[in-house]
Structure formats: structure tokens, C-alpha cells
Amino acid sequence: MAQYRVLIDANDEKGIVHKVSTLFYENDLNILSNNEFVDKENNKFFMRSVVDGAINADELQRSLSDVLPTGGCAHVIIPKKKNIIIMATKEMHALGDILIRHEAGELEANILAVISNYDVLESLVSKFNIPYITVSHENLERDAHEKKIIKAIQEFEDVAYIVLAKYMRILTPQFVETFKDKIINIHHSFLPAFIGANPYKQAYERGVKIIGATAHFVNNNLDEGPIIAQEVIHVTHAYSWRDMQRSGRDVEKIVLSRALKLALEDRIFVHVNKTVIF
Amino acid sequence: MAQYRVLIDANDEKGIVHKVSTLFYENDLNILSNNEFVDKENNKFFMRSVVDGAINADELQRSLSDVLPTGGCAHVIIPKKKNIIIMATKEMHALGDILIRHEAGELEANILAVISNYDVLESLVSKFNIPYITVSHENLERDAHEKKIIKAIQEFEDVAYIVLAKYMRILTPQFVETFKDKIINIHHSFLPAFIGANPYKQAYERGVKIIGATAHFVNNNLDEGPIIAQEVIHVTHAYSWRDMQRSGRDVEKIVLSRALKLALEDRIFVHVNKTVIF
Amino acid sequence: MAQYRVLIDANDEKGIVHKVSTLFYENDLNILSNNEFVDKENNKFFMRSVVDGAINADELQRSLSDVLPTGGCAHVIIPKKKNIIIMATKEMHALGDILIRHEAGELEANILAVISNYDVLESLVSKFNIPYITVSHENLERDAHEKKIIKAIQEFEDVAYIVLAKYMRILTPQFVETFKDKIINIHHSFLPAFIGANPYKQAYERGVKIIGATAHFVNNNLDEGPIIAQEVIHVTHAYSWRDMQRSGRDVEKIVLSRALKLALEDRIFVHVNKTVIF
Amino acid sequence: MAQYRVLIDANDEKGIVHKVSTLFYENDLNILSNNEFVDKENNKFFMRSVVDGAINADELQRSLSDVLPTGGCAHVIIPKKKNIIIMATKEMHALGDILIRHEAGELEANILAVISNYDVLESLVSKFNIPYITVSHENLERDAHEKKIIKAIQEFEDVAYIVLAKYMRILTPQFVETFKDKIINIHHSFLPAFIGANPYKQAYERGVKIIGATAHFVNNNLDEGPIIAQEVIHVTHAYSWRDMQRSGRDVEKIVLSRALKLALEDRIFVHVNKTVIF
User: I need a surface site. Which of A234, B85, C83, C236 has the fewest CB within 10 A?
Assistant: First the structure.
């Protein structure tokens, strides 16, 4: 007996649940949890089930694909640790939070490496016996720099996600395209407020009473990819922008780790520019 | 074509989703939303579906009952306004919030009457052309007082819920039994902290940094019924207990109205002493 | 013995607290609460004290002004109900929340009138014996419409605040200038995200996981005045924009009422485009 | 020029602010921030000022003490890193969070050692070159075990705080007395709900919709010391108690670190069984 995660993403049509649950029943699978969502606006159906039983995952996946409407997509996943690479710059909080969770065995992930454009974080990362790769951007055009990072990433196999734990450089469309749907970023504002540089300073200048952080997949428009998770905290007039930055770090790290956990547990569907999260 | 809410509550068993979704499919019903939960500890299965189609609700309910495990329970509900009675004492905020929502057409409910042990709120309620019934407790034993209230309530037909909008008297087991599973209360604390009288004063004396409110069904143990909704706000040392009470009112009214909305939309299952909310 | 609120707003300079507290001491005033803030960036000092004693408020105000740095400003206020006018359009929740608080005696305010461009809310407002003035915008240029509203407002004396309780028309600079620093608006988004029309639809389309509301003073840039209060709630992919709107209403009304309370209790300083709130 | 933190704690009396601010003025001190609170119920006055200037801290402290009402207490503190000792058992999250903050230079503290009754966390702590002391409780009476810990702590000098980062054993009055007002604990519930063992299981069984964590000073009644900080998160019926525990960890670590930061920055006054926090 083993557990399987079944993900279904199809155009909505009468009978999908019937067909899928019939297949589960015929395969003698027990449903442990089941989440569905119909996006009426786009006529899309999403489903995530956790089932247990004794099946061949590939066969079930094929059978499911056969009963779905044309274009529908089924994945049957056997839960196991996914490979991730973390990119960071100089700040320690978001990276450190992931390292501690990894050390505690709390993450369904193997951290293959941490890549940074500085060597500042090497001393922290090396404590955990995780490879640290410095790819300095000094004296390099953006493209040349990114090519070196891409090459470094491609040395590794089966990279499921690239986690930008406060990686402070803008990625080119080429980079994003290379790792399409695999890059998770933490932006230090409550998006879409304060896109771009130094959002805490922007927030301070606007005089907001709440600040936040947003974890999202990266696409080619800066800070405009599908949002995975957001969280906020209250601030007052007494906060300088540095105070906002300090307090914001706690939100950033928690939100990034929460988004990473959702991704590792196969709980996120992306459609158009939004996420469905079970 | 009409919408139906289908509620299922049964011992968990392989194949329930299959059987139910097959019935939906055979009745040519379209699933608009579908929520399921398996309580593994108690081996219970809960499901709430909204479907549309053209069926006989009673027949579908019978067919569903037939396919469920022994003891399982199916309800097919045609959405319509439910009858409610509100009980209050002297405070205006929770009652007023419901009255405004009712006036705005936001509630799936008819307010049949407001019953109070004082006449303080009559001037407010009568503005909205809703019957106000004062049942004074003066010079009456608790039992005699409650019997008069029970009689007043029983003058009305099809009372779905009795909403205690800061009704400040303890109800006897007899009252609770008479309206079993129908009484929704707002308690002005984050239960189970500060059960009983003047929770804000208790919270002030304990020096908490967060206060809250809890909407729950009433059972025979004071403030111990199944919790429907809770919400909190932050406070500081600068709050007197009166300040906590004032700020707490906003939480109380929002939480009570949220719980009432969940009940009116048939989104709550009660099992043992807990709720499952879809 | 009476209570006074003392508000001080001056360029920061060594000795201000000393001078002010010396005056309090010499006037035999007891400090009940005292809040100070130094805005280092702008070198500004803000203070709000509540004192009790037996003084002439005007004299104390003059004495305070004398000891403040040039340009500094002192107000000594005897707490009493302020006159307010509410403007609304068709939605009931924010207006209703203020009406109930007013009825409960919870607001330090007299509501002089409710002004709307529709008659939809008249039946609600008239229940509370508050004048309702319909100023239809039909067949009128924006300027002509506003002139009629300004005229209607100016019929009343001593209007401290104009509260826009979901008044859905954009105000011209002329209107804003006429009631400078007196207009409080509720915007149905977490500003500065989703400025302008239908922020819930914008939020839905962006796929955010949190929505909010912002109470702010109105200046001449749409939705860009000084922020008084903000609050948020979590949403999921399952929320349509109508669901966001429905849930958002609870946040809107609570935030607007909170901002109004702060204004009525003289707790807000405005400097440049921000608020200091004690 | 240097910064000083001035803490004042006295019976309330007319003129305190006047006298203190006069001393500041005469010593040519600039007030950078100033917080005051009058606890009317207990007739107590609390004040925390940050000032800069060039003074002798001890002399200022004496002068302040001289002008305060009898029994009043003034402290003039030159900000510097405080020595702390962390106690933990087996869980990594709260300890790890403090270690990362310490490594990032974010804490105003030197971690002298981590003491545990198990060696589980040694591998984590030793990465950071911090002494790890295992004091096993096996085959020891509670008193004997604690005496060994007390001895281990007393090897160090100037220990400002002992931080219980999920130290899972109950401390005896003797231990608490030895380090009076110096022990900060994180309790994994929203106190006073769910005092004692396994609060997540208690929360699960009660069916609450919100769980939380509480940082507090330890006194001789289990989980009843003065509360410093609290935070909560929403949960649903779908959370097992293990899920609550997992999600709760994020709250626990953030709240404990927040409380520790407040203590290190001398922002907490304790009076009777409550805190005043500036």
C-alpha cells in the first residue's frame, strides 16, 4: 500500500468527477483527501486527490488521461523529495529559514546548491554541507552573468524548483524561459503594490499602515507572475523604512517557506496568471 | 434548471464519491462546487456539493440515501430564505449588524422576531418593522422565564435558527434541548479562554495581547458547544477592559454574522463537538 | 475638573517636552495619557496629551503656542460631539455601520445629514430621523452637480468631517479644496494597490491572496491622500470578484468606522502626505 | 555623543514628566523617542525614552532617582549586547530561528551557550560555534537535574536572559527563583487557553478555528507568567493536531524571537503579572 497524489487539470465538463472516481473505485483506491475547483469564468476543472492503494502510477495516469476531455491533463505522483536550488544575494533570513527547515527534515526537498552573486552567505551555507556557488556579476554583462548561472544550475539533474530567497537581481526573459514554471520568488511587498526596487522605502513614503510580502512564480514581467502566498503585518507612523524592512523580513521568510512547501507537496495549479491552491 | 445543495454525512467507506458522483451524472446534474472531508480519526465522510439541473429533490435525496453506508445521511436542499429569531439583551452592535444586513438583502433569512429580556432595543428593532417581544425576567424563576420565551418562539413556524446576539443570560438544558442544534451564540472571548462572565475583564486581568470572539452552537455546557468561527484583534497594555470591550464589539458582530451566513448557506456539519465547514 | 486634549505639532527642537510639561505642571494639570513622535526625516515633533484639571483652554493654548518653536501649533480641545455629514451612493453596509454606532451612542458625533446622488438609501436613513438629501447627478455636468452638493453641505454649520461611506463618484479639486482636510474616504482596496474603479475585479484578475480596504483623507489625486487605517482579509482562488466584494464589505465598514473614531477623538495628525496616529 | 535608554517606573504623581524632562533639558539631552503609560488602576507611571547627548549615565540615573516619588526607579542604560543562554529539548525551529538571527547580527545578544536535556540539537548548534551543554535528566530527580543546569548556567557571567526555546520540562520554583524575571518561555498555545501538556492536541479536540503561541516570563505557576507577545493563525477542520503543530511552529518561533528582541532592547516593564511594552 502506498500513497499517490493525483492532479487533474481539464476543461470543465459534466461527468469528470464521476469518471475519475469510478477509476479510483475500480483500482480499489481509498480517497484520503479530495479537493476540486471549477473556474467558471475560464471553464476549467482542477482536482487534487490523495489516495492510497496498490497501483501502477503510470497506468493510472494513462487511464485518467483517457477519460478526461480533450486537452485534459492528469498526473499521478508518488510523494518523494524534490531537488531544489536556492539563489540568494546577501540577506540571511529567507535562506536561513529554509536551511533550518531542511536540517529539521521538515521539507520534502533536497537542496542541491545555493548560488549567489556574492560570497557573503558562503560561511552560513557551508555549515550545512550544502554546495555554495558564487557567480559574481562584476565586469559581466547581464546575459553573460546569467549564462554562467544557467550553466551552474544545469550541472544538476532533476531540478524541480529554483527558489529566489532574496536574489536581488532582475532575471532576463531568457533565464525565465529556461526554467519556465520552476522559479519561485519572494517579493518584499504586498503585490501589486510597490513593484520594483526598495518596496519598503516606497511603502514608507506612501505612509501605509500595513506592509506585506508575496511569494510568486516568476514570469517575464517583473513581479507580475502568479501569486502563491501573501502575508501582511501592521506598521505605524513610528516605523522608519529600515524598521519596516526589519519587521518585513519575518513575513518574507514565512511566506516564501509556505509557498515552497505548497510547491513541494504538489498543491499548486497555475492557470493563465493565477494559482489554484489545495 | 435550478440549483441544489447536496449534503452528505456518512461513515467513510471506499466508493462513496464514486456512488454519489455516478448519481449526479445519471441525473444529468452539473457540479458547480464540491467539497469533501474525511475525518480519519472518527472514520467519517462529509461532502457538500452545489449542483444544477432539473430534478426532483426528494427523489435524489432518497437515491443518495440508498447508496450511502448504513447510517449515512443525505440532504438535498433547494436554497431559500430560512426563518430566524434573534435574542438579545441590551447591546446594539451585534443585533444592529444583522438588521442592516437583513435590510440590505444580504442575508438568506427572514427575521421573524427579536426577543429580549429588556425593552431597550425595541426602538431600534421597530424601525425595521420587525416584531419585538419583551419577556422580562423580573420576579420570575429562570425556568418560568424561559418557558415564556419558548412559548413566544413556538408561536412561529419553521424556525431554522435562534441567534443569540449578545443575549446575556445562561440558558437551561431544557431550553437548549428544545431547540437542539439550532442555537447560535456569540461569546465575547477567544474560547476556550475566558469562559463565563465578563471575559474582557478576565482578559484584561490576565494581561493578554490578543482578544477575540467565538461563534458557536450552544449545548449544555456553558460556552462549550461546537465552534463555528473565531476572530481576534491585537491589544496593548494601554487598553482598559472597557477599551477591550469597545474594540471587541467589532469582532463580535463580524464573527456572529459570518457564522450565521455559514449556517444559512448550509455550510456547517456538526460532528461530536466540532464543526466541519465548507 | 475637566478633561482636555492637547495637540502639538512643531519643528523638533531640544526642550519642547520640557517646556510643555512645565506648563502642564504650572497649571496644575494631571497627565492622563501622553503620546509623542519625532519624525526625524522631516524634523517634526508631534504630541497628544490628555490632561485633567481646571483651566481656561484658550489661555493654555496661547501659553503653549508662545513656548513652541516658530511655526509650531498647539490646540487645546474640550472633548465634545463633532458635526459630520455622510455621503453615500447605493450601498448600505458602511453607512449602516455608522448609523448603528450613532444610534448606540458610540460615536462622538452628530450626523447632520446623509447626502446621496440616489434615493436608494433614503428608507434606511429616515428610520433614524436623520435628514436625507438626494442630489441627483442626472443631466448635470460634474461641476454643477458638485456645486449643488456643496451648497447643501454649507447649509449646515460647523461641519467637522464629511465621511464618504462608499460615495462612488470622483470629487473635483474644487470640492476637495472647499472642504480641505475634512473629507474621509473608504477605498475598497489595500492602497496603493488597485487605485480607481472596481478594485475587487482588479484584485480578482491579479489573483491576489489577500484583499483589503483603506480609509484616507481625500486630496486631489485620486486615492492618494494620507492613509488613516487599513485592514485586510485572506481570500482564495475560490472567490469570484463578487465574493471578494461581499467579504470586503466587512473590512470596508470596520476600517471606515475606525478611521472616523480616530478623527473624532482628535488622534490624527497629517503631515505632508502621511498621518501620525496616537 | 551617545545614545541612552532611560527607563522609569514609579507611582504616578503630578509633575513626573515635568521633572524628568527638565533633567533631560538641563543635561542638554535630545529626546529621540519617548513613550509613557499611566496605569490608572494601580496608580503606576512607566516611561521609556531614548536620548542622545554626552552625559555620565550613572549620574543621570542618580539625579532621576532623586526627583522620582519615593519607591520610584530609574535606569539609564547604554545599549550593548546582552548575554543570553538558550535552553531547548529536541525541536529545532525556535532555536534555529534565534541562531540564524544571531548569525545575521540581528540580535543585540551574545549567545553564551545552549543547554539541553538531550544531545539531539548538538549538531545544529555546533555549526555556529556556540557551546552546547547536554544535561541529561535520565536517572535524576527533578531537583538534582535542575541543580546541574543551574550550575552550568552559573559558570557564565552576566546572564541577562534565559530563553526557553521549546524546553519541554517544567521548571521548579527553585529554578525560577534563582533566575527571577530573567526566563522567557514560548508556550505553544494562545494562553490562557490550553495550559499544560500538548496544547495542539487540546486545541484539536476542542475544535478551535484559530491557534496561537505566547511568549511570557516564567513565574511559579505553569504558563501563568506575564505575557510579552502573542500571535495566532487560522486553522480549519481539515487540520489534524500534527498539522496544527507544524503550522504552529512558525508562529512559535516568530513570537519568541519578537519577545526576545523586546527584552534585549529594554522595551518591557513588568508590573504585578502584566507587561507594559514600548
Answer: C236
Angle among Cα D37, C44, C69 to the nearest 5 degrees reads 100
Sign of the CA dihedral with B91 first, then B96, B98, and B102 last:
positive
Round the CA-based radius of gyration of chain A to a whole number and report it: 21
Burial of C239 (0-12, 13-18, 19+ CB in 10 A): buried
Query: What gap in Å lies between CA C105 and CA B92, rounded to an integer?
Result: 10
Contact check, Cβ <8 Å, B34/A22 = no
Q: What is the spatial distance between Cα C270 and Cα C259, in angstroms, rounded to a whole number?
A: 13
Q: How many CB pairs under 8 A join B and D?
A: 75
Residues of chain A contacting residue B24, judged by C-beta atoms under 8 Å apart: 17-18
Report residue D234: phi and psi, to 5°.
-80, 140
Round to whole Å and give the CA distance between B148 and B55. Answer: 43
Residue C229 cell numbers, joined: 487605517
Q: Is omega for the bond preceding A69 within 30 degrees of 0, making it cis?
A: no
Kindly provide the ipTM of the predicted complex, given to two decimals.
0.95
Grid cell of C49 as nine digits: 496629551
Phi/psi zone of residue C36: left (φ > 0), alpha (ψ -120 to 50 degrees), beta? beta
Nearest by Cα to D83 from D153, D180, D10, D3: D153
Residue C275 cell numbers, joined = 498621518
Q: Is D150 in contact with D175 (CB distance < 8 Å)?
A: yes
Alpha carbons within 13 A on the beta-carbon side of B268 = 23
Q: What is the rounded distance in angstroms from the CA atom of residue B124 to the CA atom of residue B110?
A: 17
Which cell is B25 given? 451524472
Query: Any chain B CB within 8 A of the CB of C124?
Result: yes
Residue C141 sits at φ, ψ, to 5 deg, of: -65, 155
Q: What's the residue count for chain C?
A: 278
Distance CA D172, CA D177 (A): 9
Residue pair A217/A145 in contact (Cβ under 8 Å)? The answer is no
Distance CA C151, CA B58 (A): 61
Instruction: Evaluate whether C204 touches C246 at the Cβ level (below 8 Å).
Output: no
* 3-state SS assignment for residue B153: helix
pLDDT digits (tens, 9 = 90+) for C68-94: 999 999 999 999 999 999 999 999 999
Beta-carbon separation of B191 and D208 below 8 A: yes
